[in-house]
Amino acid sequence: MFNRAVSRLSRKRPPSEINDSESHPSSSHQTLKGTPKWATSLENLLEDPEGVKRFREFLKKEFSEENVLFWLACEEFKKTQGKKQMQEKAKEIYMTFLSSKASSQVNVEGQSRLNETILDTPHPLMFQKLQDQIFSLMKYDSYSRFLKSDIFLNHKKSEEQEENSPEAQTAAKRASRIYNT
Fold first, then answer.
1. Low-confidence residues of the chain: pLDDT under 70
2. Contacts (Cβ under 8 Å, ≥6 apart) of 13
3. Rounded to 5 degrees, what are φ and ψ at 19?
4. DSSP state of 64
5. pLDDT computed for residue 170 by the predictor
6. Contact 110, 78 (CB under 8 A)
7. Exposure of 51 by Cβ count < 10 A (0-12 exposed, 13-18 middle, 19+ buried)?
8. pTM for the full model?
């Protein structure tokens, strides 16, 4: 029994595949899309390209778009293969966001700043500490204001109008008939 439990735990499955005892999806968040999903967490917002687009639009108005751009660049950097490409991307991130001469400098704590010499020996998680700092800054500062912003509220309103439109309801009824027969 213990081995079976360990085996079950060791299998990595996305949350959408984890079911409760009645074999129904265990989370109502799985069906959420758009603004309702964005409102549940910054993580969900950053997983949705449209959410990122709207969040960037908001941050641009707040003069802090560099935060999400840095976070996205770090996520992309983690996927980089090959030492040469990694060195090039690391230098690009450093010059764009971290250098004292950076065009889009992010606001990170002084002791967290990287020394330029580290760029010679890059590794996928070299920016992790700084990325976590920026994520926390966005999560506890910008994200809550974004959820109250006109950009978010107007997008939410347009989604609701689209959802309640006669065309959407008719399509839903057609789908319901198709799948419930």
1. 1-31, 110-113, 167-181
2. none
3. -115, 155
4. -
5. 60
6. no
7. buried
8. 0.72
Alpha carbons 47 and 137: distance in angstroms, whole number: 18
- Residue 178 — φ and ψ, nearest 5°? -65, -45
CA atoms within 13 A on the CB side of 82: 4
Residues 6+ apart with CB under 8 A from 42: 135, 138, 139, 143
Task: Using DSSP, state whether 173 is helix, strand or coil.
Answer: helix
76 Cβ neighbours under 8 A, 6+ residues apart? 89
Residue 45, Cβ neighbours under 10 Å: how many? 24
The dihedral through the CA atoms of 134, 97, 124, 48 has a sign that is positive
Q: CA dist 121 to 21, 115, 128, Å?
A: 49, 12, 15
As a whole number of Å, the CA-based R_g of the chain is 21
Q: What angle do CA 150, 52, 167 make, to 5 degrees?
A: 70
CB 46 within 8 A of CB 52: yes
Largest Cα–Cα separation, the chain? 65
